[in-house]
Amino acid sequence: MQTRTTKETPGKALAPATGSAGADSRRALIEESHQRCAALGLSRIERPDYEPLMRSDLAIARERNRRLSDRAAPVMEMLLEQIVNTHSMIVLTDAQGTVLHTVGDDDFLERAGKVALAPGANWAEHSKGTNAIGTALFAETPTLVHASEHFMHANSFLTCSAAPIFDPRGNMLGVLDVTGDHRSYHQHTMGLVRMSARMIENHWLTDDYTDRLRLHFHSRSEFIGTLLEGIVVVGPDGRVLGANRSALDQIGQSMAAVRNHSLTSLFGTSTAAVHDHLRSPLALPMLLHLPDGRPVHVSPRASGPVSVMLRGLGPAAPGAGPGADDAALAAPAARRDALPAPGDAVAPGLAAAAAIAAGGLREPAEGAPARRASGLEFLQTGDPQVEAVVGKLRRVLNRDIPILILGETGTGKELLARAIHQDSERAKQAFVAVNCASIPETLIEAELFGYEEGAFTGAKRKGSHGRIVQANGGTLFLDEIGDMPGPLQARLLRVLQERSVTPLGSHKTIPVDIAVIGATHRPLREMIERGQFREDLYYRLNGLAVRLPALRERNDLPALARRILRGECPQHTPEISPAVMTMFTRYRWPGNVRQLANVLRTAAVMAAGEPQITEAHLPDDFLDDLQRPAAALAPLSAAAAPAPAAGRADDTAAAGGAVVAGNARTLQEAEIAMIQQVLDACDGNISEASKRLGISRNTIYRKLRWNPDRPDPARA
Ligand SMILES: Nc1ncnc2c1ncn2[C@@H]1O[C@H](COP(=O)(O)OP(=O)(O)OP(=O)(O)O)[C@@H](O)[C@H]1O
């Protein structure tokens, strides 16, 4: 949204201008939001309640949004440089409005903390009334809320500019916001925030679709390569897989509508023509036309083998058979398996393992390149419980039996659902994932079932097909199904019974053919007893229920960890030191495989080329967590810990494998006890202890948190 400002007397607040069309629609947005807040029973004078998430829940929220935080971090840094010394702060929230991270001026962070603008607090409209974060989340549009426009008076010292962040399939990822003292309002802030959100979205898109064909376009060729360029991603069959915000703006259609296009219907060209263009050296952008006839300059980009990216549509160009001329276009050493991204239709025969692991793993089939693991096969790393789950699923594959996947967060429920889809006869069609917990309750209905043009206030101009229709022919994955609001459970039940959808505001029913996979970490049976989940829906979803074990219950952690590392560093995969493996097997892993993958990802970067991952490479927050007594599974005993590998280990736990750890309750405590014992045995001679333990003097200092220049007060 464009806002203009008027200048006021220096020292007084600069306020967003009134009178322009932009200001009118902004006023309408704020008014509608105030009405919603009043309808929710919020009071303008109440102090915003400050109920941040517990530390562990915040850690899980951060873990779940790790990728968003990683992508946003450099952009937030850059923004910080722009707003430094302006009594402002930058806020990143998840798709529910929970604040994940804040950076900014210390004094302002402190003031903001007083109104709960701090990590762990929720700024959705229902908890904080009209505010830029909550209103941007609701309206799905960049939003400025200034001073007294905040619903709650306590927040009226703020001026906030927020922009939602979407993935290339149109799913809300979170919100980026700059908040400051209302007297420091600056007209450029909103523009900066919007651009920053677009940068994050564009990075996300390129990450998701590294090995897909991307069409970068703009009506002015000089804008290609800038933040204003539109980007559309096309699958091997020519279907549009995703697009960035600028593409939607230029095409003038919603994400759902754009994703219904093909290369031909959107740009009026064929894959063969694009292929030819890509092969010609130093080619200028192609001049093509959007569906409404407007000309655009289009620059196709491909970093993988084009023969894999483009198949099916139109006649093949001469010499464009599989493998032909790929060398010219393929990026150098990296594996090029045409990584399908989440939400893609996946062509059979394409890197199955890599495809299901699009969440971050690029796992080559072990050993030889000849045969690739199937989707489900990829998940088998030796744990008997997982083996049993896969065995059951194989038996019901392609039988049209709804599957319910149960398991804690991060256990791999979505990965399993993708694997089922990929091994099924529907693999060529769409896999559509809907996270019932991340869509605001008020929007789930429209999101799932679609709506007609003008069906409700705030509806997008051209209506929407809804996710169920998008999944037609393929698989609909309903994640966090336990969070689906009651009235919608009834509607979903009807869809599943009647196999047809009636969009909001429409009288037409659309027949659908979908395989349904549900997932939840909630105890559905207990919810049924408490009347929170419909029993009839439960049975409709539960043709077969499988439970994925928590990571701490699995006995294949070492194999799983090595596989994840191989995916991260396919060329020079580091070993995991025995001491680190001991830590891993003893840790509770509240975030399950997701947390393990994140820890390994960081460790692999820190180890950068070293042959072994040691404790020094592990992320600090993980090491901190290990120190908490509740982090370990059980008291350390030499028998319970895996045997250290032959040869010298560089960590204390392995080196001290034979040392009795006394009453230590955590691995950390056990390590300290061991070091202390050996030190005592050496009369405090650090060099001698370091030799006996096989660790460096510095490691001893670090473990005991000593300053080597000062004697340890505890031992003095
Ligand atoms: N068997 C596995 N091998 C490799 N990576 C895995 C495995 N299982 C899960 N992961 C990784 O862990 C992360 C979390 O997986 P996924 O999203 O499927 O879990 P989930 O149970 O659906 O989580 P949530 O309940 O939070 O939605 C992903 O990055 C995924 O790639």
Can I get a quick summary?
The chain is of the alpha/beta class and 716 residues long. It contains 30 helices and 21 strands. It has four domains: 5-194, GAF domain (Beta-Lactamase), CATH 3.30.450.40; 209-317, Beta-Lactamase (2-Layer Sandwich), CATH 3.30.450; 375-549, Rossmann fold; 554-703, Helicase, Ruva Protein, domain 3.
Structural notes for this entry:
- One of its GO terms (biological process) is regulation of DNA-templated transcription.
- It comes from Piscinibacter sakaiensis (Ideonella sakaiensis).
- One of its GO terms (molecular function) is sequence-specific DNA binding.
- Residues 1-10 have a biased composition (Basic and acidic residues).
- It is a single chain.
- With 716 residues, the chain is of the alpha/beta class.
- The chain has four domains: 5-194, GAF domain (Beta-Lactamase); 209-317, Beta-Lactamase; 375-549, 3-Layer(aba) Sandwich (Rossmann fold); 554-703, Helicase, Ruva Protein, domain 3, CATH 1.10.8.60.
- The strands form six sheets. A five-stranded antiparallel β-sheet has the order 4-3-7-6-5, sandwiched between helices. It has a five-stranded antiparallel β-sheet with strand order 10-9-8-12-11.
- A hairpin with a 5-residue loop joins strand 6 and strand 7 (172-181).
- The radius of gyration is 27 Å and the shape is globular.
- Adenosine-5'-triphosphate (ATP) binds at residues 64, 357, 359-361, 379, 407, 409-415, 479, 521, 560, 564, 593-594, 597.
- Adenosine-5'-triphosphate binds next to helix 17, helix 23 and helix 25.
